[in-house]
Each structure stands twice: as structure tokens, then as C-alpha cells.
Amino acid sequence: MSNAQSVDIIVQGAGPAGTIAAIKLQQLGFTVAVVTQPSRYPTVIEGISQRSYQALENIGLQQLCAAISPAVPRYIDWGERSGQANGERLIHREVFNAALLAELRQRDIAVQTAAKVTRQWSPASEQWRVAAGEHSFTAPLLIEACGRQARVAAEQSRAAATVSLHQHWQRPAAAERPPYTAVAAVAQGWLWYVHAGDGQIYTQLSCGGDSAQTLSHSAAAIAELAANLDPQLFALDDASARGELLSRGATPRLNRAAASRHLIAVGDAALAADPLSGNGIYQSISSALIAPAVVNTLLTAPDRAELAIDFYQKRINHLYQRFGRLGREFYADEQRFQQQPFWRQRLSWPDAQPSHVQPDQILGSALRAVVEDDLISRGEVVITANHPLGIWRIGGELACERLRRHGTPLPSLD
Q: Which SUPFAM superfamilies match (predicted)?
């Protein structure tokens, strides 16, 4: 093995979260190396919302955005929400992953892909050593961006087990129909149907672990479920399955030790939400945009390390709870299957609190950790029911000063 190259930060994983974190950290002046392994699921298709797409555009990821489809219509069969909903864009993961690597290489960020990646922390030198094939790097800080492969601290309250079953199909009869997506509730869970164009169909069934053991033996079981749905949207009776049915774990999980002085977890390594509550790309972007200020603080202002670590963990916890509550509310909208095990298990998790209070309630002010000049510091924030971590600025103006100027009482909560 060659001598290790010394950098400021090593990012392990080149998915959306790892790539965005690496680019943002380079923009802060750090030397960054990315090590990654080939995807275990290169044939997966995912949906991405317009909000997530715009976030990628705002970051400046032009090659990545070019690898994402134009918006397609989306239909839903879900209680009172049934009908046509907002559209979504499609990601063919193999093309998307190649575009992520291209974004890194375009910026001259060192990237190494290898079948095997190993890492070791040396307490004596306070350095990570990460090896990818014949190449290795050392750095005082590691970004954990390995998705669900990452080890996480045990949770106190686990969500019900969820498994996603993925299948490609070919349906020549639909070759001329424009692309669209559709989602439908079924007794065992919910089915996402993608008509990608040229007669190519892709299905993802999210179900409980028990159902997955029964259904994963045959693509025919998925076709049987689809046969009970609207044939104009979910037809599979004249489709032939392509390749094997893929089973992936999709249980929500939270990393309760997402940050330390020498390691920061981003993306699914930090929190993995229920697929229903908001696509994974959005939460990956969220954590990846928070992490650079935390890393910058750890490396350049170590006296604020505990403040930065606490700041990051609280935001990861908040995102996890918010996505969980959104998912619970969406499950509650479907009344037909609430006595089925899959649905019943998801009506009380993570808690009974609403995801959003309307109207929002101002509770007071408090000193909390904030991002200032790409560092974590303390600032006075406005605490509301929907923003328990605080609002520091509104339109560039300090939120507390603005509200006091307008006569809004802000009792101290410290």
C-alpha cells in the first residue's frame, strides 16, 4: 500500500449527503478526500420533490441536476387525498451516482472507489486512516456518509420494521404512454408505481417485515396486489418482470451519537426517515448543509466543540421527529386499512404530537447555538411551538430585535 495522503477531512461515502458535505467543506478552505464503495443497489429508481431539486440547483450541482428527469405527473390512491398530486422527478440511481462522482472530480476533490474500504482511528496521533484499495488517507476528522451501512447508537424507541421490495418490469403495451408515477395504499403497506417511459415499469412496495417474507419470494405477489388497484395507473397484468426482486431495509432509525470531536454522520448515517414521510434526498441535503459549520467549529474553534456537537445532535433529533410525525399523519389519512398490522403499528409512532401547529405560537426567547460566519456560536433566538430550536434571523435581521421593535413580548426561557 502506498503512503497515506494527509488531508483535513475524509468523507466516507459519495451519496448525496457525502458529496454535498465534501463540496461545502472544500468551499470553506479544507482539503477533502472522498472514499466510497460501488453501490449495492445501482438499479433502484427514486423520486425527488421539486423542493429537493431546487436545493441541488442552489448548491450549484449542475451535472447532478442534468441526471434527474423532468417533472412527471403523480397520482395517489390514499383516502381523501386521492387524485392527481404535485409532480415529482425521477432518479435512476446508477446515472445519479455517476453524476455525484463527476461533481466531485470537477472540483478536484480526491475520490477513490474500491470494493473494500477500511478505517482505523489512532488515539495517539488523533488521526483517522482510511484505506480504499491501494490508496489511503489520514485526517483528524471523518464524515460518515455510508448510508444505512453505517453503525449507529441504539435507539430508545424503535419504529416498526419496514422493508421495501423493488422490481423492474417491461410492459410493451404502455410504450407510447408518457412517464408518470402513482402511489396507492394496500393492506400490506403501500405501493409506488413508476412508468418511466418506453414500456419500462418500476414498482416499490413498502411493507412490514412479516409481509416482506411472504411477498419477496415472487414478483407475481406484487402483480396480484396491483391487480386490485386502478388498472389505468397500476397495470401489471400484461407486464413481465425483469431481474430479481430486490429487498431493502427501510425502517426509520436515528443515530443518537451523530457527532463527536472526530466524527460527524450525515445523510442516512445520521437519520433515516420513513420513505413515506419525505424522500431521503431531502433529509440528506438537510444534514449535509448543517454539518460543515459544525466541522469548521471542531477544527478551527475547538473550545466550542461541545456546543457544536450538541447543536448538531439536537437538529438531527428534531428532523427525525418531524419526519416521523409527518409520516404518522399521512398514514392516519388512510382509513381503509387501519386495523391491519402494518397500519396499526404506524398510527402511534413516534408520539402523539402534531408535526405542525397552526397558527404557530411564540413562546419566548433563549440563548441557543446558531450558525454565524460558518461557525457555531451562541445567539439569542425566538422559540416557537414549531421551531423549538429557535429562529435566529428573519430576512437577515435578528429575530428577537425585530419582534421587540414591533412590541411582541418575549419572556426569557433560560
A: FAD/NAD(P)-binding domain (SSF51905)
